[in-house]
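Suppose you are handed a protein chain with no further information: no name, no annotation, nothing but its sequence. What can you learn? This example shows the usual starting point.
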Amino acid sequence: MRMTAKPYDIFISYVVEDREIVERIVEVLESYGLKVWYAKYELYPGAEIRPLINEGLAQSQYGVAIMSPLYRGPWPHGELFYMLQRQGMLIPVLHEVSLDEVVREHPDIGNRYCLMTDEGIELAGKNIAEHIKEKKRRNPVWKTILCGKTAKGKINRFAAVGIIVFITAYFLLPFRSYEQPPISLLEEQIAIRKAAIEHQALLEFQKDSMRYDGFPGTLVEVVKTEEAYLNKAKGQRNFIEYFTGKEHIRTFVALEKLGVIEDKNNVEVPFGLSSYTLSIFKTLPNKPEAYGYSLFNILPLNHEVKAIRSSEGHYEVDIHYANYLRYTVITLEIDTQNKRIRNLDFIGLKPFETFVFKKQGNNWDLVELR
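A reasonable first move is to predict its three-dimensional structure. Written in structure tokens, the prediction is:
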């Protein structure tokens, strides 16, 4: 009888549009005697999808992510996030998509060996199966559980004693692990947060382009115009507003503390952006002497989990964002009465945010975002 540490050898993460490809890979894996968690087999009419997927992930030794151009949305991204957090679990398979394209959306994939289907889908399945069979041959479950291994492959004679100590401590010592919300719920809420700010930035970009008759410009032109304005109006002040989709921040000091702006005395174009669309405004209503332009960030808004804290019925996750500034509008106008020269309007997230969940009955709810 084959001994396994977990009921399933492999969890398959995919989108339904790629089902034909997935079934060909699953067929190969099963031909090698591997037990596969495949949604088509495990889900049934009326089933609660999220608990079954979470259970399947937890009961699988390895996870295969079929990453195609269609591999998007909270469900597959939640599964991918779970597998990334479990060392040695994830096996990425790229189908009709380049590694560069995947890394732009999921930077953590960049340091992993990925299989490609360009030489055949069945061959990719065969490589996965042979890899897992070889790992199982080298590390049989009985040896892993009872003996363990050192880095050099020698039997760890103290592992069995350690297991006994752990079991004793588990039942006798006053410690406990707290229940946590499903990882897919966190990923879903992060996806909603990111989508909301992206939508807001794109909406404002489109509105401003139409309202001010925007046209493509260059950074050199913008910098020269800014220098001319600033030289004509020394001593005038910058006015700022940073909108996060949840709050308006209107002081440089606050943005400095948040890490959005490094130095309030040196806020320069292009405001830390490295890839963007630059539009110059032809006209500003009722302001013939004014000058305006905008920058729209074209790099993907990425995130990374930095810390997790949990207690009874309470769960907090610290998230770090990359490319969090999404859209910028700058208008230059010498206004001696109000000592105003430069208006900076930003739309973006804070570099760090904390998602706070609480358990309400049988469900976990996002109750605060700070």
